[in-house]
């Protein structure tokens, strides 16, 4: 159970994320007895709900999306009693004053002790406005004389390096870095947290986790979904901004960083920042050789026909936005010199699959001649979703009188291994922010560096219209240009 009492305010409370993820997460934190004894939840949005109609809406969301199924009485009524709603325009100071009154009332009624967690789950264009208005209404962290104030900010943090810096300037006028929790839900996924355990709680992996033994690393975040009614947002974002700059970059940092000096939030985030800083900037003149982009056309997923990207609502009919991005990066440090890191993410691919694959070098000498023809390089795969586990590919003798060698795999699966189902990332992350543990949140220096890494690609892709779009069929493996990116290095992508 979380120790500190606290009120949590969700801005954008009538939105999709609130329905599907955030309110079900709050409810499950309550069911699991993880919420503090003294808590209150406030929704803030433009939609004109009353407290009661908001609670009713939230009950519907929980019934539909919670991992624990239908909300049960009498616990739901008790929980709903802690939920209230403030309606108003995001740029109206009076609405924030109403919010302040509600929070003060909560301190009295629920004993929330002046501790406040603000969660910004609105379109990013509103982030700076909300932060400014909180301060105008006396809700800034330095104006809070009784408790602590923290803010969770959803992605994307900026749409490019300059806008991210501008947003940071605004947010940091009101909040100190220690009070800012930039959320990246990938960091809340169990197998992502396990990357550190695998590397630093075992003795056998770390000695080979370097250029001497590793041939290359592939990081994949492949989805089968399209833009899911978010065409307006996505057409101005694209795969590089939507997935690579944040989720995939965080995976890269965790897999490639040096061992932190301790498990504290800053020690870990120092190492993540350091390794991202060592990523070699892509030469602007070579962007087209070091990257590949794609856009899906109509196809079929699981036997069901799906439309092409340009046919999706709110997408420009001649859109130049990529729904698939692949980037080859090099890390200029002692551990990783000359080891390519291949990153890719795309929508409407054949399967949902997020994983990190470490491919090791070939054996130095082939002892088995023809018998060893089925022999392959060792590969360690950290499976993030939908399978959660670790798989090690190695070579073994095929039973029989002859010496035949073939590649086999040794698999660990979290579900069967531990006999539990992982909690959704948002539960873990909201709980951590309430506790004041920022380990799984992205610090500003890493966000800035990640933008720095993708900027040459973003600039070049935006400036060059891709005449070949759309260039991959929904339900496939992505564009041929992506295969060529690896083929140029004598390598292949793992199958999606
Ligand atoms: C979000 C992106 O951050 O992550 C979405 O905006 C994407 O476009 C989603 O679909 C993927 O998350 P997950 O957890 O399903 O891999």
From TrEMBL:
<feature type="binding site">
    <location>
        <position position="352"/>
    </location>
    <ligand>
        <name>substrate</name>
    </ligand>
</feature>
<feature type="region of interest" description="Disordered">
    <location>
        <begin position="294"/>
        <end position="318"/>
    </location>
</feature>
<feature type="binding site">
    <location>
        <position position="155"/>
    </location>
    <ligand>
        <name>NADP(+)</name>
    </ligand>
</feature>
<dbReference type="GO" id="GO:0009051">
    <property type="term" value="P:pentose-phosphate shunt, oxidative branch"/>
</dbReference>
<feature type="domain" description="Glucose-6-phosphate dehydrogenase C-terminal">
    <location>
        <begin position="196"/>
        <end position="494"/>
    </location>
</feature>
<feature type="binding site">
    <location>
        <position position="46"/>
    </location>
    <ligand>
        <name>NADP(+)</name>
    </ligand>
</feature>
<feature type="active site" description="Proton acceptor">
    <location>
        <position position="247"/>
    </location>
</feature>
<dbReference type="InterPro" id="IPR019796">
    <property type="entry name" value="G6P_DH_AS"/>
</dbReference>
<dbReference type="InterPro" id="IPR036291">
    <property type="entry name" value="NAD(P)-bd_dom_sf"/>
</dbReference>
<comment type="similarity">
    <text>Belongs to the glucose-6-phosphate dehydrogenase family.</text>
</comment>
<feature type="binding site">
    <location>
        <position position="223"/>
    </location>
    <ligand>
        <name>substrate</name>
    </ligand>
</feature>
<feature type="binding site">
    <location>
        <position position="189"/>
    </location>
    <ligand>
        <name>substrate</name>
    </ligand>
</feature>
<dbReference type="Pfam" id="PF00479">
    <property type="entry name" value="G6PD_N"/>
</dbReference>
<feature type="binding site">
    <location>
        <position position="185"/>
    </location>
    <ligand>
        <name>substrate</name>
    </ligand>
</feature>
<feature type="domain" description="Glucose-6-phosphate dehydrogenase NAD-binding">
    <location>
        <begin position="9"/>
        <end position="193"/>
    </location>
</feature>
<dbReference type="InterPro" id="IPR022675">
    <property type="entry name" value="G6P_DH_C"/>
</dbReference>
<dbReference type="GO" id="GO:0006006">
    <property type="term" value="P:glucose metabolic process"/>
</dbReference>
<feature type="binding site">
    <location>
        <position position="242"/>
    </location>
    <ligand>
        <name>substrate</name>
    </ligand>
</feature>
<dbReference type="GO" id="GO:0004345">
    <property type="term" value="F:glucose-6-phosphate dehydrogenase activity"/>
</dbReference>
<protein>
    <recommendedName>
        <fullName>Glucose-6-phosphate 1-dehydrogenase</fullName>
        <ecNumber>1.1.1.49</ecNumber>
    </recommendedName>
</protein>
<keyword id="KW-0313">Glucose metabolism</keyword>
<keyword id="KW-0119">Carbohydrate metabolism</keyword>
<dbReference type="GO" id="GO:0050661">
    <property type="term" value="F:NADP binding"/>
</dbReference>
<comment type="pathway">
    <text>Carbohydrate degradation; pentose phosphate pathway; D-ribulose 5-phosphate from D-glucose 6-phosphate (oxidative stage): step 1/3.</text>
</comment>
<keyword id="KW-0521">NADP</keyword>
<dbReference type="GO" id="GO:0005829">
    <property type="term" value="C:cytosol"/>
</dbReference>
<keyword id="KW-0560">Oxidoreductase</keyword>
<comment type="function">
    <text>Catalyzes the oxidation of glucose 6-phosphate to 6-phosphogluconolactone.</text>
</comment>
<feature type="binding site">
    <location>
        <position position="347"/>
    </location>
    <ligand>
        <name>substrate</name>
    </ligand>
</feature>
<dbReference type="InterPro" id="IPR001282">
    <property type="entry name" value="G6P_DH"/>
</dbReference>
<dbReference type="Pfam" id="PF02781">
    <property type="entry name" value="G6PD_C"/>
</dbReference>
<feature type="compositionally biased region" description="Basic and acidic residues">
    <location>
        <begin position="309"/>
        <end position="318"/>
    </location>
</feature>
<dbReference type="InterPro" id="IPR022674">
    <property type="entry name" value="G6P_DH_NAD-bd"/>
</dbReference>
């Amino acid at each position: 159970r979380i120790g500190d009492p606290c009120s949590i305010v969700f801005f954008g409370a009538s939105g999709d994320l609130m329905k599907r993820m955030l309110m079900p997460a709050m409810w499950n934190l309550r069911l699991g007895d993880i919420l503090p004894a003294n808590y209150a939840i406030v929704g803030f949005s433009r939609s004109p709900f009353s407290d009661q109609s908001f609670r009713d809406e939230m009950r519907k969301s929980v019934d539909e999306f919670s991992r624990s199924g239908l909300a049960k009485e009498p616990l739901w009524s008790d929980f709903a009693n802690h939920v209230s709603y403030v309606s108003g325009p995001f740029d109206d100071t009076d609405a924030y004053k109403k919010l302040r009154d509600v929070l003060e009332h909560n301190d009295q009624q629920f004993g929330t002790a002046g501790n406040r967690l603000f969660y910004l789950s609105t379109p990013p264009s509103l982030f700076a406005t909300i932060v400014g208005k909180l301060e105008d209404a006396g809700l800034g962290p330095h104006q809070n004389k009784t408790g602590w104030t923290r803010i969770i900010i959803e992605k994307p943090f900026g749409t490019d390096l300059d806008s991210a810096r501008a947003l940071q300037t605004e947010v940091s006028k009101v909040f100190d870095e220690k009070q800012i929790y930039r959320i990246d839900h990938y960091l809340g996924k169990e197998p992502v947290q396990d990357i550190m355990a695998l590397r630093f709680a075992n003795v056998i992996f770390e000695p080979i986790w370097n250029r001497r033994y590793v041939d290359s690393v592939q990081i994949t975040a492949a989805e089968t979904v399209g833009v899911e009614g978010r065409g307006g947002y996505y057409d101005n974002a694209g795969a590089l901004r939507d997935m690579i700059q944040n989720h995939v970059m965080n995976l890269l940092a965790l897999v490639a960083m040096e061992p932190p000096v301790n498990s504290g939030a800053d020690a870990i985030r120092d190492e993540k920042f350091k390794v991202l800083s060592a990523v070699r900037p892509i030469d602007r003149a070579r962007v087209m050789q070091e990257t590949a982009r794609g856009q899906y056309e109509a196809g079929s997923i699981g036997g069901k026909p799906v439309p092409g990207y340009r046919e999706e609502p709110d997408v420009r009919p001649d859109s130049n936005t990529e729904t698939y991005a692949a980037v080859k990066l090099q890390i200029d440090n002692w551990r990783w010199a000359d080891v390519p890191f291949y990153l890719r993410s795309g929508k409407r691919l054949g399967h949902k699959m997020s994983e990190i694959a470490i491919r090791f070098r070939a054996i130095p000498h082939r002892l088995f001649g023809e018998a060893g023809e089925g022999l392959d390089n060792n590969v360690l795969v950290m499976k993030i979703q939908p399978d959660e586990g670790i798989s090690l590919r190695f070579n073994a003798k095929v039973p029989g009188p002859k010496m035949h060698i073939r590649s086999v795999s040794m698999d660990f699966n979290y579900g069967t291994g531990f006999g539990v189902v992982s909690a959704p990332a948002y539960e873990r992350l909201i709980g951590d922010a309430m506790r004041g543990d920022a380990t799984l949140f992205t610090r500003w220096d890493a966000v800035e560096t990640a933008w720095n890494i993708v900027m040459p690609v973003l600039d070049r892709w935006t400036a060059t219209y891709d005449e070949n779009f759309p260039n991959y069929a929904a339900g496939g493996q992505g564009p041929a240009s992506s295969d060529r990116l690896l083929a140029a290095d004598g390598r292949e992508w793992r199958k999606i």
